[in-house]
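[step 3/7] fold_predict: job queued, chain A
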Amino acid sequence: MRSPQVIFVDAVGTLFGVKGSVGEQYAKIAKDFNVSLDPQLINRTFYQAFQTAPKIAFPDLSQSEIPIAEYQWWRSLAEQTFRQTGDLTKFLDFEAFFKGLYAYFATAEPWFIYEDTWLALDTWKKQDITLGVLSNFDSRIYSVMKALRLEDYFTSITISTEIGAAKPDSLIFEAALAKHQIERSSNSAWHIGDSFCEDYMGADAVGITAFWLNRDRQPLTSPAKQSARTIDKLTSLITDEALRSLL
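[step 4/7] structure written:
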């Protein structure tokens, strides 16, 4: 397979992840407000709420209104989580807690970078492959990428809240392609992400060469997954020749 003109990568779960778990990070901040939480219960309930929440995209809002909408989207998710676990009433000032929590996730502190990320990025950079982030994230991605020292690797960042459409919607992929003057189905772009539906199926539908990053080596339970281009780390897409040139 020839090298692409641009490689798009997902952010959370692909380049970096949450230290420990979302529940552990929420419990850590809650301690500052004298609230004790069960990290496992919070984590389980959070993901249940997250999976049923509407996509984080705001097609009818102006750019100036988006930061407020992002904040309210995450606040609603957190409030729903704590209400379901019975912890909401423990907070004397839930707004103050959430404001601190929201700001915390805009820093490097709750995140870790996967071990394979640096080697993959360095190799692609040495090969002069253009890189872009394509994520269902909010505008905090810019501060997180900067804090994690990842921003200099990427020419573009395309996020659902700014485009008004979230993966697997074709609009967000088309917006990312347009930033690099690439047409659909041109075989000039790759996309790598950890969500089979959002990343792999979404990219494949618009003619982008897609790779499903199955870090946990989930069972390939469907014919679609069995036939997908599947990797378990980013460095799976690095050739021995490319690696030798880097070392």
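[step 5/7] annotate
Confidence is low (pLDDT under 50) at residues 242-247.
The CA atoms of residues 220 and 227 lie 9 Å apart.
exit 0
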